[in-house]
Structures are given as structure tokens and as C-alpha cells.
Write a structure and sequence with these properties.
This protein has about 300 residues and is α/β, with parallel strands linked by helices. It has 2 domains: about 180 residues, 3-Layer(aba) Sandwich (Rossmann fold); about 110 residues, N-(1-d-carboxylethyl)-l-norvaline Dehydrogenase, domain 2 (Orthogonal Bundle), CATH 1.10.1040. It has an 8-stranded mixed sheet with strand order 3-2-1-4-5-6-7-8, sandwiched between helices. The structure holds acetoacetyl-coenzyme A. Acetoacetyl-coenzyme A (CAA) binds next to helix 2, helix 8 and helix 10.
Length: about 300
């Protein structure tokens, strides 16, 4: 496999394009907005520079990675020669189904169609294509260049040789693949999101403050970030939407999102991307400050 098409140039899409390009693949990066594509290339350049300055890669690898990426605003043109398409568009079911119909119509018959969805059913996405046996979940973690895991999700119809191809490909990217089946939240978010929800409940019920909750989990369980900081990093809207998928998918009240999380999303306090969640994020500052709302 040589030609990869990545759809969506947001945080996940640019990270996925980065790791494929760094490992010698030709990447077509697609987005509806040229502005978003330009931002993605700037982010990839910054992240490659950071790797060069840390001695993780050479400047030749950086240059060849950047040369390996071509940007497109036309999906049809970008998927034409792809052997694998990795979709990393916004986490919205209707949008993804529409994108998969278009990919299916324009990609070669042999092309494998992967989605980076964090919680939407692979089987449902596959059902709108003419090749459900070639549709698979390839769930990268943020930040993609750093995190080792690729959660590979078999849809109901995914063929074994397709899974094996994606396992091998993930290894070529220096990642560790883990194969799971297609049930709500897969494994990563089925376990991560209830932990985040429980942290929000602990705050909501006044068991402890933001810093205490995060410090317990950082120092007590060796997590690199506490669950509330991680929720801000992922985006509180994304956390809420995944919890709703778990709640609806299993019909079990244990997944019901905490009312505080729902309120924060309604108030557009979404975490890092809006500058405020459980913490506040001033531009250019690395200091972590508890949001005014949760200060004691
Ligand atoms: N590109 C390249 N390198 C990057 C990077 C990026 N975007 N972001 C960070 N790095 C590198 C840094 O250069 C640094 O490299 P060295 O170890 O060689 O020095 C290393 O990563 C650590 O970065 P920092 O020193 O800046 O900061 P840190 O030590 O606080 O680590 C972190 C930052 C890697 C994000 C760490 O806090 C962490 O692991 N957090 C948890 C992340 C996590 O849980 N992600 C999964 C979220 S869930 C998800 O993605 C899926 C979903 O469906 C919701």
C-alpha cells in the first residue's frame, strides 16, 4: 500500500496524515475548506519541527513527510487513486454516511474504507456502501503522532484479510494495533467515558474539587492527565456525544451523562477549543488554571 487518502483536516485528520507521510506513504488530505487545509499543513509542520528539535526525526524526514502530502478540496479527485481511505471528519452520523456514499462511488473497487470514528457504528457506516466487507474502524488517539494505540474495529461484515491488512499497516506506522468488535464505544471509549463521567459526577456532588480529582488520578493511577483535564482536551461536546451513544446503545442508566456535563456543553464551555471547561486556557500560556466557576 502506498496511496492513502485522509478525509477531514481537523485535529485527528492532520495527525493521521502526519504519521502516514512521516512513514513514507503518499497522502491526499481532503477538506471542504482550503483554509482548514492550510491550517492543517501549518500544524503538521509545527509538530514535525518539534520532533526534529527533540531529535526524534531528522530534518530530511521532516521535508520528505511534507512533500508526501498533497491537499484537495474535491473528495472525488482525492480518493480516485487511493488504496486506503481514512475518514476523520466531524463526529456526525449523517455527515459520515454521506461521505462514505461519496467515497464508495469514487474509490477503486479494491480500496479499503476506514473510519476514525470514536463511537459511531462501523456496521452502520458500512451499510451505506456497496462493500461492507471492506469497511473497518481505524481509531487513532489524540495526539496521533505521540499515542501508540490504533483501535481496529471490525464491523459485522469486515473480512479477515482486510483486518490483517490494517493490522500490518498500523505496525508500519510504529503503532500498536488492538482489534475489537463493533459495539457502542468499542473498548477505548466504553471504558474511558464512564471514568470521565464519574469524575464530573464527583465534582457535581461536591466530593472534591477539580484539582483534587485530577491529582488523585494523576498521582494515584499514573495517568498523564487527570480525567477532567483530559475531558477538556478531548472536548466536552465529544465526551457528551459518546456518552449518549453508550446510553442509547446499551439502554443502561449507568451511562447517563452527568447533568453538569450537559450544562457545560449547553453553555459552550467545551474545554481547550473554546478556552474554558474545567480549566481555562489562555492563548500562549501553558499554565493550567481551574476555571473561575470551580474555584473554591
Ligand atoms: N505531535 C508531535 N509530538 C507531540 C505532539 C504532537 N501533536 N504533542 C506532544 N508531542 C510530544 C512532545 O514533543 C513530547 O516529546 P518528548 O517526550 O520526546 O519530549 C511528548 O509528546 C510529550 O509532550 P509535552 O512534553 O508537550 O507534554 P506532556 O508530557 O504533558 O504530554 C500528552 C502531553 C502526550 C498529551 C500527555 O499529556 C498525554 O499523554 N495525555 C493523555 C492523552 C490521551 O489520553 N489521549 C487519548 C485521548 S482519547 C482519544 O483520543 C480518543 C477518543 O475517541 C476520545
Amino acid at each position: 500500500m502506498k496511496n492513502i487518502c485522509v478525509i477531514g483536516a481537523g485535529t485527528m485528520g492532520n495527525g493521521i496524515a502526519h504519521v502516514f507521510a512521516q512513514n513514507g506513504f503518499s497522502v491526499s488530505l481532503v477538506d471542504v475548506s482550503q483554509d482548514q487545509l492550510n491550517k492543517a499543513i501549518a500544524t503538521i509542520t509545527n509538530n514535525l519541527d518539534r520532533q526534529v528539535s527533540k531529535g526524534a526525526i531528522t530534518s530530511e524526514v521532516k521535508e520528505s513527510a511534507l512533500n508526501n502530502i498533497v491537499t484537495h478540496t474535491s473528495l472525488a479527485a482525492a480518493v480516485k487513486n487511493a488504496e486506503l481511505v481514512v475518514e476523520a471528519a466531524t463526529e456526525n452520523v449523517d455527515l459520515k454516511l454521506n461521505i462514505f456514499k461519496q467515497i464508495d462511488e469514487n474509490a477503486a473497487a479494491s480500496c479499503i474504507l476506514a473510519t476514525n470514528t470514536s463511537s459511531i457504528s462501523i456496521t452502520k457506516i458500512a451499510s451505506v456502501t456497496s462493500r461492507p466487507e471492506q469497511v473497518i474502524g481505524m481509531h487513532f488517539m489524540n495526539p496521533v503522532p505521540v499515542m501508540k494505540l490504533v483501535e481496529i474495529i471490525n464491523g459485522y461484515a469486515t473480512k479477515k484479510d482486510v483486518t490483517n491488512t490494517i493490522i500490518e499497516l498500523s505496525k508500519q506506522l510504529g503503532k500498536v494495533p488492538c482489534v475489537v468488535n463493533d459495539y457502542p464505544g468499542f473498548i477505548a471509549n466504553r471504558i474511558l467515558m464512564p471514568m470521565i463521567n464519574e469524575a464530573v459526577y464527583s465534582l457535581y456532588e461536591g466530593v472534591a474539587g477539580v484539582e483534587e480529582i485530577d491529582t488523585v488520578m494523576k498521582l494515584g493511577m499514573a495517568h498523564p492527565m487527570g480525567p477532567l483535564q483530559l475531558a477538556d482536551f478531548i472536548g466536552l461536546d465529544v465526551c457528551l456525544s459518546i456518552l449518549n451513544v453508550l446510553h442509547e446503545g446499551f439502554g443502561n442508566p449507568k451511562y447517563a451523562p452527568c447533568p453538569l456535563l450537559v450544562n457545560m456543553v449547553t453553555a459552550k464551555k467545551l474545554g481547550v477549543k473554546t478556552g474554558e471547561g474545567f480549566y481555562t486556557y489562555a492563548k500562549g500560556s501553558k499554565e493550567l488554571m481551574v476555571s473561575e466557576r470551580f474555584k473554591k
